[in-house]
């Protein structure tokens, strides 16, 4: 791989993005995402804790903004050194371009996640794997069925970013490749479990040709059928996400009383090492402010560690030989492992989180059953009044997609998944209650 190809400003429809005065194509990507409808929906989607009366607990939107901020810092730091090592690149690119690509890709990293956190992915998968949706197995291919029974938010995100109806997005290939942490289809031969990039899959069968074009344009190294190495900047996107959910979930847990203040300080101090000054910390008035300061300092420390590790392994990354998470190998990795262990025990398994997950396993399959029953394999002449009423609940763009895919069961099912997975937490619950007759619309 080489940086000239990896930094491709090509967009879909064979258009090369034009740099504007004072705003590069990659900065345009960031702006397009911010003003897009799919991104705005993240404001009402659960990060870890259900959307509470506490206004400081993170949603998917605030988490994505924070990940993007960390990603920009990582990209700029790496870009400065890469440009020093590759003088010819500096004639066309700047460190800000590296930062903008990672920031934009980071901003979208959760855009395909369904309601109710990661349990929402499991709920959709189980609808097809062992629920009412299992009856469609014989009507789709093996690879298509793998997409449905192992629903993946990363693949849904790639689908959203490449849907033709979202005319305002159409990101550059560099940003789309950096977004793709798992550049493979749902089933591959000889899966290499030592490769981080092969842990999950990153695109559905419906978008595999689109991803192939992006991989070829950016020069990703092929590893098999519809399987490639990661874009090097995808490691920075992953690191930005890891840094934020390790430290900020811990901060939220402390603020909610799930993790003790003393334990939180000890963990943050372990990352800061000799930069930690207990006496200076205790001069700060409130515990919340102290934790916030420590978190900011710890984020800065991890940005330094991740960027240094990336640069130390730049050649291996460019050859596709380095394929592990940066946060698994930085000097603070053992502390991060401890943070995860404590978070699983005290935060992710807290009662309110488990109640949210349980709700997701009722609501999402319930909605999928209603919509797939009304739509899939139904000719207009065979639709009941109930089917027609259910279909009219779908947004116009979903109805249009369905009309274009009347003879393709897989695509019809994906249209239903698009709608249900795109709902916010509150919208999903409200729609479920109304469709099931538990509550009626407000007059």
Task: Describe what this molecule looks like in 3D.
This protein has 443 residues and is an all-alpha fold. The protein has three domains: 3-114 and 152-233, Hypothetical protein af1432 (Orthogonal Bundle), CATH 1.10.3210; 115-150 and 351-443, eoxyguanosinetriphosphate triphosphohydrolase fold, CATH 1.10.3550.10; 236-350, putative deoxyguanosinetriphosphate triphosphohydrolase fold, CATH 1.10.3410. Helices cover 58% and strands 2% of the residues. The chain is built from 21 helices and four strands. The chain has helices at 3-6, 25-34, 37-40, 60-85, 95-107, 119-129, 142-149, 153-161, 173-179, 208-218, 232-255, 261-272, 278-282, 287-312, 314-318, 333-348, 351-375, 385-391, 396-403, 409-422, 425-435, and strands spanning 10-11, 15-16, 222-224, 227-228. The chain has a two-stranded antiparallel sheet with strand order 1-2. Strands 3-4 form a two-stranded antiparallel ribbon. The longest helix is centred in the N-terminal third of the chain and has 26 residues, at 60-85. It starts with a helix and ends in an 8-residue tail after the last helix.
CATH A-level architecture of the largest domain: Orthogonal Bundle
Tally of strands: 4
The H-and-E topology, N to C, reads as HEEHHHHHHHHHEEHHHHHHHHHHH
Tally of separate domains: 3
Our measurement of the CA-to-CA distance between the termini, rounded to an integer number of angstroms, reads: 60 Å
Write down the oligomeric state: single chain
Poorly predicted ranges = 48-55
| Structural class by sheet pairing and helices | mainly alpha
Radius of gyration: 22 Å
Q: Which bin fits the share of residues in helices?
A: 55-70%
Strand order of the biggest β-sheet: 1-2
Mean pLDDT: 89
* CATH T-level fold name of the largest domain: Hypothetical protein af1432
Overall morphology: globular
